[in-house]
Fold this protein.
Amino acid sequence: MKDVKSNGIPRTTPIQSATFSQSINAEIRRAAATGIYDIRGGGAKRKVPHFDDLLFLGASISRYPLEGYREKCETSVTLGTRHAENPIELDIPITIAGMSFGALSGPAKEALGRGATLAGTSTTTGDGGMTQEERGHSNKLVYQYLPSRYGMNPDDLRKADAIEVVVGQGAKPGGGGMLLGQKISDRVAEMRNLPKGIDQRSACRHPDWTGPDDLEIKILELREITSWKVPIYIKVGGARPYFDTTLAVKAGADVVVLDGMQGGTAATQDVFIEHVGQPILACIREAVRALQDLGMHREVQLVVSGGVRTGADVAKCMALGADAVAIGTAALIALGDNDPRWEDEYQKLGTTAGAYDDWHEGNDPAGITTQDPDLMARFDPIEGGRRLNNYLKVMTLEAQTIARACGKNHLHNLEPEDLCALTMEAAAMARIPLAGTDWYPGKPGTGY
Amino acid sequence: MQTFDLEAEGLRALNSALHAQASTTNQTVWDVVNPKGSHAIAVGLDAPIEVNVKGSTGYYCAGMNKQATVHVHGSAGPGVAENMMSGTVVIEGDASQYAGATGHGGTLIIKGNASSRCGISMKGIDIVVHGNVGHMSAFMAQSGNLVVCGDAGDALGDSIYEARLFVRGSVKSLGADCIEKEMRPEHLEILADLLERGGCDAKPEEFKRYGSARTLYNFNIDNAY
Ligand SMILES: Cc1cc2nc3c(=O)[nH]c(=O)nc-3n(C[C@H](O)[C@H](O)[C@H](O)COP(=O)(O)O)c2cc1C
């Protein structure tokens, strides 16, 4: 467009509103056309303060580094030391988060089990119950105890190496789940005891307990049924991390799993994913503070998740006081989800590799978030397991590299003093000094 | 018969003794005395044994039961027989909230009344209540049968799937997507069997049947609020 009108008067350049952006306007048009809100998978796509806003300082005259590759830097972690007879011992502090069978195919669950087992870590079931593929291929399997109780039975409970009572998820704290009929195959329907092909809701509240006092009794029941052998985790979304962690510990948790708002989901409303919950960066220190106030830090372990992608993210979580992390989305990408090799098919679905999130519709070109036999056949669980193991290995090596540079012979020895923050927001949320200063907003004694 | 004094010996000893039944002894009848409202009594059983609890229980009595018969000679606290797989649980008195929640199988008989959310998310269990049930009973009930010889409270069968509800008395209100349905001969037959198993002398013809209108089965914006 010319910037001068035909009469010679300069024209105002057309400006796209930052408030009414292209994508907002498109969503308004979509809503106006359909009358239905958008449901999708994945986590928050908006930019929020995250681990990228923190940096490690590394060693200097006052800190002595360890020799890269050579000097020992331990990575093991034991989860569930508080009450369980058999705590979970992992070689690496990176676990695979709970993802439902139904959302994921059987072979995808198998691949997660294979990869995690090769890497010496645990996998987690999800809504819909335990599958043979997953139990068979996972050396350490955490069994989720969810509000829907789909597929829940005492035999599987006793086959589990740990039990995770799911109170909430970061993607949708306070929300339930949804599995659309397209993904309800005979097998999924049978496991969930529902008719085939109908849209299945997963409840947002547990059916037989309401508050923390009830939860304590529920945990007693689970322990009695499993003879106090396995650890009991409580998973909460990043809503009120200080209070939720305190109440989880009071209810008897061995491990608290804390999932920030960036955490992925199989399917929920976009408005929920983008607008409810706190970023994980803002949650970790609050949860650690709760544990410290109770004298339970390191006694009740803290597993954090929500946008963990790299060894640097792992190291930052550990430095902020977590004992381990969990990954969902990153594990799916390692398996081949959203891979550009399927770009033609993503285009046909009206999207592009890296942006595909209609996991609930069951048309996943990569054959991972589907129950369609033809699409599932594209995915090789052995190769998937190998890729996941490689990825977990790389993340671990990266985290070790950073820990050694900070002079730490165990990932758990990383500490807040090893970090600085790049932004005021990150400094405030993580209580880490802003780079170049010894100050963060809210630092005691500074008057701000 | 074995008598177990819960107050003296403790919960862990009770449940581990009962769990050991399947393999190590042929002691099939147990009396539990002094339950005094304790939680998690006789949970996770998996053997064809009979447990008589001589008094009232707290939360989750007979939770996740398989095969066993658990008879509570008193009232039961919240979540009795939750997620039961098989076997029989009988409550002589009343049952608190969430009785039989998410149960997959077996029979739960409540001789008194049941509180709110009886049979919530039930997945195949049969529940027979001689008295009344409270509000939100059979919420999201997936399958199985709930028989209420008395009255039902508000929002019976809200968001129900394929479970069958039989109520003899009044229903204060039906929940979303729950409707009265025709009582056909096959239902009378099912109900007659349930009443017999439940030890009720009510007549099947006195009951009305309720179930899902199936209008919520596929996601539709008009159903969301
Ligand atoms: C496909 C998919 C399915 C999920 N299913 C469940 C589930 O069944 N139960 C649950 O607690 N969380 C579920 N989650 C959330 C994960 O357990 C985890 O909290 C989240 O993925 C962590 O964030 P990240 O994806 O950024 O790593 C699911 C996530 C994804 C991506």
In short: The first helix of chain A runs from residue 22 to 34. Chain A has a mean pLDDT of 94.
